[in-house]
Structures are given as structure tokens and as C-alpha cells.
Here is the input.
Amino acid sequence: MNENVLDASAMLAIIQHEKGADYMTDEIMANAVMSTVNLAEVQSKLVKNGYDPKYAWLDSTSMLQSEEPFTSDQARIAGDLMAQTANYGLSLGDRACLALAISLNAPIYTTEKLWQKLKLGIKIHVIR
Here is the structure.
């Protein structure tokens, strides 16, 4: 299967109809997966912005093919990424997303332009 990993920023762009949401075609979304770490980020931001928690979760998960648990292998990769990404100020959530994509050898979709500078052996699509 050819998964497409979504960063929290990409999912928020879709849900909130922000610039870049139109980049996320049905073809991309048919194979969309997210780390549960990034789903927690989306849920937190939506609830903080006044969304009903139940509907925030439904909006986030209903568009995904799967919700990927944060594994110990991904935790190791995320920790290892600190050495390569420290100068960029990436959060644990950012590195969890990258770790999922690395473990799946899958492309990432994000709004984070800074990620274009990363050389991690995976394709990074910046949607705006």
C-alpha cells in the first residue's frame, strides 16, 4: 500500500478550509494516515479553538485510512532525528510525523515550509 502521511498542520488546513487544503486531493486522502501523536495535536488545537471534542475527533479521523499508533521504533527514530533537526526547532510532534513517514517509507504532506530543508530520504510535500 502507498500511504501518505499527514502532518497535523495539513489536517488542520483541510478541516478549517485554509490555504493549501485544495492540494489534498481525493487520491492523496484515499491513502492518508496519521500518527496518533499528530491526531492528539489536531484534537487539541480544534478543541482549544472551540470545536466540540466529539466532532473534532470525528472530523479528524473520518478522512484517514488509518490512525497509526506511535511505536517504540518510531520513538527511537524521533529521538534520533533530534541530531539532524535541532537547528530547525522541530517539536516532538513534528519528529513523530517524520518518524512515521520514515518507518513507512512514505511521503509527508505538511504546511511547514521549513521541512523542505530536511534531507531524510523521504518526499516532503509542502501544501502552501
In short: The CA atoms of residues 35 and 68 lie 5 Å apart. The longest strand covers residues 32-35.
